[in-house]
TrEMBL record:
UniProt protein name: Tetratricopeptide repeat protein
Organism superkingdom: Bacteria
Keywords, ordered alphabetically: Repeat, Signal, TPR repeat
Keyword Signal annotated: yes
Keyword Signal: yes
Length: 446
């Protein structure tokens, strides 16, 4: 006789196993779709596919890693770091995850944390030239030039024709006053890539330090030919010409350097010097005054601080948000009617009436996330950003997948000086499918 009681645990186990296998199979399909989209450059589509893969199988480290790569390609490095964190938590032996997280941390100017990630990547993959190069860049940013020099040299040992590493080592040698030692590195870069203007500029700068001014001018001529908007090359060529007492030629170069970069105080100084040598003492004094005042911490000047997202920018970005305003069934307490009347009143610039209706809608239905969000938008329009954030918080608490709320809260937080919190909100909005977030991230989070 069939014993249902004895067979029930087996049936439940079989059912659970089948469900897990189906989820894993579905997750694998989404993962493959994400890889395909990444290869074609559809990083937004890849992000969504990897999110679906994670939903189906939340313990799969490669899904988090690849979603992180997609976010990084969309310049959402804060969001990428969170995904790399989870990938590493699930698989702490993945050198690429540490390497990629280090790159994203570098993009956020967190060079100390990046250096630690690159070091861990090197421990796990000691022959990865890219990891040494990236660690060298982080060390340079931290002014650890001797350590950077070792890393760039190791990169070149592993990859002798690595032009970026050769150029970086040349620059690092300049930082260590080894100008003669930098010349072979810049020359090798030029041999590998004769069109690389920076290599000519770098070699020209070293030749100036070695008092080889005519040779420096020849290199700087080539640098300017290849990159005619490089103000530093014009400045250096002007300096070399000054050393050769060609003050007229130097003056033209300093003029061009200042046209390209009006804050180049060294160029004002050089131009003032040349003007003085040519008898224009009034012009020289004006240039010296400017050289003293620009970006000088010892000169008292009025400083105006403006965030990347000003009030005008915030208004423009926020007001472009399309609200969820689809018709819902009218419930007995009529909160939907108050909400929609508020929308209409707001469009007629009846801010007071719109706010009163939203307050009533929320009073009648305290779980009305759209009403909180709309009231938050109006508060932000009226300059009450803290009140707007509170309304956005409530909307998110009620609906954690409300992408537009994360977007608006991110804009407001960023405008108030919380760049990290604001950009993380923008990242979350993008992850949830609100694509305008990635334009804001590109413009204001990097």
């Amino acid at each position: 006789m069939y014993n249902l009681r004895r067979s029930l645990p087996f049936l439940l186990c079989a059912l659970l196993t089948t469900t897990i296998l189906r989820a894993q199979s579905t997750g694998a399909n989404f993962f493959e779709a994400g890889i395909t989209k990444s290869k074609t450059g559809d990083f937004m589509g890849a992000l969504q596919a990897f999110s679906m893969a994670i939903g189906a199988n939340p313990e799969n480290a490669p899904s988090y890693y690849n979603r992180g790569l997609a976010k990084a390609m969309l310049k959402d490095h804060r969001g990428a770091i969170l995904d790399y964190d989870r990938a590493i938590e699930l698989n702490g032996k993945d050198a690429l995850a540490y390497l990629s997280r280090g790159v994203s941390k570098s993009k956020q100017d967190d060079y100390r944390a990046a250096l630690m990630d690159f070091s861990r990547a090197i421990e796990l993959a000691p022959d990865d030239a890219q990891a040494y190069y990236n660690r060298g860049v982080s060390r340079s940013r931290l002014e650890q030039y001797r350590g950077a020099l070792q890393d760039f040299s190791r990169t070149i040992e592993l990859d002798p024709n690595n032009a970026p590493a050769l150029y970086a080592r040349g620059i690092t040698k300049q930082k260590l006053d080894d100008y003669a030692g930098s010349l072979p590195d810049f020359s090798k870069v030029i041999e590998l890539n004769p069109k690389r203007a920076q290599a000519y500029a770098g070699r020209g700068a070293s030749l100036i330090q070695l008092a080889q001014y005519q040779k420096a001018i020849e290199d700087l001529n080539k640098a300017i030919e290849l990159a005619p908007e490089d103000g530093e090359s014009f400045y250096n060529r002007g300096f070399a010409k000054s050393k050769l007492e060609d003050y007229k030629g130097a003056l033209r170069d300093y003029d061009r350097a200042i046209t390209i970069d009006g804050t180049h105080y060294q160029a004002y100084y050089g131009r003032g010097f040349s003007r003085g040598k040519m008898g224009d003492q009034k012009g020289a004094i004006q240039d010296f005054n400017t050289a003293i005042e620009i970006n000088n911490a010892n000169v008292e000047t009025k400083v105006v601080y403006n965030g990347k997202i000003s009030r005008a920018v915030l208004d423009e970005l926020r007001n472009a948000v399309q609200q969820r305003n689809k018709i819902d069934a009218l419930t007995s307490e009529r909160s939907e009617a108050y909400f929609n009347r508020a929308i209409s009143r707001n469009k007629m610039n009846d801010i007071k009436g719109a706010t009163a209706d939203l307050n009533k809608a929320i009073e009648l239905n305290p779980t009305y996330s759209e009403a909180y969000f709309t009231r938050g938008l109006i508060r932000s329009q009226q300059g009450d950003q803290k009140g707007a954030i509170q309304d956005c918080n409530n909307a998110i608490q009620l609906d954690s997948k409300y992408a537009e709320v994360y977007y608006v809260r991110g804009l407001i937080r960023h405008s108030l000086g919380d760049e990290n919190g604001g950009c993380l909100d923008l990242s979350k909005a993008g992850e949830l499918g609100y694509t305008p977030s990635y334009k804001a991230i590109s413009d204001y989070c990097n």
